Amino acid sequence: MNAPGSPGNPPTWASSAKDLVGTARGSSRVWYTIGYGILNEVFWPSCSLPQIRDLGFIVAGDDFWCEVKREHNYTISTPDPAIPLANIVHRHDRYQLDLEILSDPMRDAVLVHYELHGEGLRLYVLLAPHLGSSGHHNDAWVAPQALMAANGPQALALMADGGIARGSAGYVGSSDGWQDFRCHGAMTWQYGAASDGNVALTAELESVAGTLALAFAQTPEGAKTLAHSALASGHALARSRFIEGWKNWSKGLEIHSKNKAISQAARRAAMVLKVHDDRTFRGAVVASLSSPWGASRDDPGGYHLVWPRDAVQAGFAFLACGQHTEARTMLAYLIATQQADGHWLQNNFGDGRPYWTGIQLDEAALPVLLAAKLDEASELGDMRPLAQRMVRAALAFVARTGPFSEQDRWEENAGVNPYTLAAAIAALVAGAEHGFLDAAARDYALSLADDWNQHVEHWVYVRDTELDRKHGIHGHYVRISPPGEAAQTSCVVLKNRNNESLPASELLGLEFLALVRLGLRPASDVRIRDSVKLIDATLRVETPTGVFYHRYNEDGYGEHADGRPFDGSGIGRAWPLLAGERGHYALDAGEDPVPYLESMLGSASQGGMIPEQVWDCDAIPGRHLEPGQPTGSAMPLVWAHAEFLKLAAAAQCGAPIERLAVVAKRYHRARRATVVHWRETSPCDGVDAKVRVSIEATEPFELHFGHDGWQGATDRASTPIVFGLYGVELDVAALGATRSIEFTRHFLGPRGWEQRNWQIAVGGDPA
């Protein structure tokens, strides 16, 4: 009999609050997540593709029934921080349910070993398929001794070694097993199938102790064969191989902290990073095996996508703990997914298909830093020719489009920001000094880096604002300066606050700390110290679990005041990874970074997962929101675990892993640029009389220019430079006692005249 209620409620994913994530070290291509003490999303055959919402349990007796996950009374443990074997104990006045969850190292299957303690009780399993990474258009049916589901070329089978007494298929919200218990206090429905909808499966298990196998394949027959063979092979053998695989991998971890808690957490962090690495597409490290506020939405992407920025953070973290092979594998993946013009997609599925298509300049620069760090450690080997090609293309993109970025690192605003600037400048120097560029490109890259480095403060530093006077400082770095505008006088639109605007001079963030971390500014620079004082006063949040920071003031990416999930707007909460960034600065400034490591640990879930954000207001128990504890945003966040691991390593060796010797050496002392590279997106208002000015564009043009009010006006055709740029270089000194240069351009393509005049003052470079 077919179930009524098609197609069911609109689908959602499981909560992003994960207790643990795991996968096996072997040929298995499944990744599992655990939340609220049960199995949540399982990913197959890539860690970009979730195939179920969750698999949970109902415990019932003649006068009683209870869904286990809703009780929220459980403990979770692992045999070792670097082994994601979950042992879960659910406790209730009427029962105790013991679970152990792992993936079969030899098969595309997850095993759930269960044992129910309590008199006169029966155990029921609830399974919500989301095959094809969607809760829509799934088919579910009950087969002999198996629950089955399919959606196109994806299928699953759930079997129990102790047998299934009876099963039912239904539609979520109308004829599913939970609704049956809610209405009748028992399992009374036995529908044979539910087709083309948001479906759910229910089964009464024959035994209160045994093992479930949830398997995935391209056909229902294949899934059932895998599930059956996993059970036949046995839980004990799979468990032994699972533990052995992770023990062998973790032997190579180089973690030297004298603090036992930090050392164990670093081992766990390394494991979390490795779990997020794809096995079908090696090196494709996704940002999180979760969907932020997943229980309230149907997002096919979530965070289980590859962000090049987050992946590079993981790559540096692998290097920090001695896992050079993992970092090399990630670089190989980045080489394979680089776009033709040199940049990387904002994010993509593991196989390379795009999801969001914005462009962030830091995501083009950071892979260069990873390649250079591997080269610094003499680890590129046979990869060097392809790495060199990648670096050349990436730096060509950086040089052509920078210092402007279509998006900042938070994927919100266009303009110039300190974090992106720091990454771009360091990448230009690293590419040049590590021999990735030919002579002409090398000279240009260093010249451009010097110019951008000299102009950082001109673009993203303000002085004598109301904020500065209030906090007793001279000036501060801003989060971002809009395209072609001065930070001192412009406004920034807040994308997560219904497009409200705020003066750029009042918008604060921790982006400027990258200037110190990458070796462009000393920690003692008064501008840096003043800005640190300001963010500590405005963005720092003290909670019962530690100290954290907001991304920026007036951030809207987080829950609403009443705890409702983010829905396009909200209130940004505090981020543990930013405590790690502040900890890196503390280390450079001669302070103790351990309190920041301890804060990050304090934010973690019971299973040690570090979240994207923590709650920073009064508790809202009904929504499981407690001060200093994870919110409904992503958990675990790969970037946060990478930041923890890097800070733990830096605390031992005394320097950030991302800092390259060639960059730190070049900017150990202030360096004056000899050429100013003028761009339309980042024009300079004034230059020193001793420099040369290179007027540049990405297409040929003719420069019409004069001086001191268009005196001596003349024309000069641009010539190709490098990296696909064209330019005209003017020697300011050769113009004589000049107070200003005026110019406009005629482009040789359809654009024609640019319809505006530009002026550069001579003799007073504001940088």
Overall structural class, as computed from helix and strand content, comes to alpha+beta
What is the CATH T-level topology of the largest domain?
A: Glycosyltransferase
Low-confidence stretches: none
- Please work out how many helical segments DSSP would assign: 18
Shape summary: elongated
Oligomeric description of these chains: single chain
CATH top-level class of the largest domain: Mainly Alpha
Compute the average pLDDT: 96
Estimate percent helicity: 25-40%
Major sheet size, sense and barrel closure: 9 strands, antiparallel
Q: What separation lies between the terminal Cα atoms?
A: 77 Å
State which percent range the strand residues make up: 15-25%
Question: What is the topological layout?
Answer:
Elements: E1 20-23, E2 31-35, E3 38-43, E4 52-61, E5 64-67, H1 68-71, E6 74-77, E7 86-91, E8 96-103, E9 109-117, E10 122-129, E11 138-143, E12 146-151, E13 154-160, E14 164-171, H2 177-184, E15 193-197, E16 199-205, E17 209-217, H3 220-233, H4 235-250, H5 260-275, H6 308-320, H7 324-337, H8 361-376, H9 384-401, H10 418-433, H11 439-460, E18 461-463, H12 466-471, E19 475-477, E20 491-494, E21 500-503, H13 513-517, H14 526-538, E22 540-543, E23 546-550, E24 574-575, H15 576-588, H16 594-602, H17 638-653, H18 661-666, E25 675-678, E26 686-687, E27 692-697, E28 701-707, E29 711-717, E30 719-720, E31 726-731, E32 740-747, E33 758-762
Parallel strand pairs: 25-27, 26-33
Antiparallel strand pairs: 1-2, 2-3, 4-5, 4-10, 6-7, 7-8, 8-9, 9-17, 10-16, 11-12, 11-15, 12-13, 13-17, 14-16, 18-19, 20-21, 22-23, 23-24, 27-31, 28-29, 28-32, 30-31, 32-33
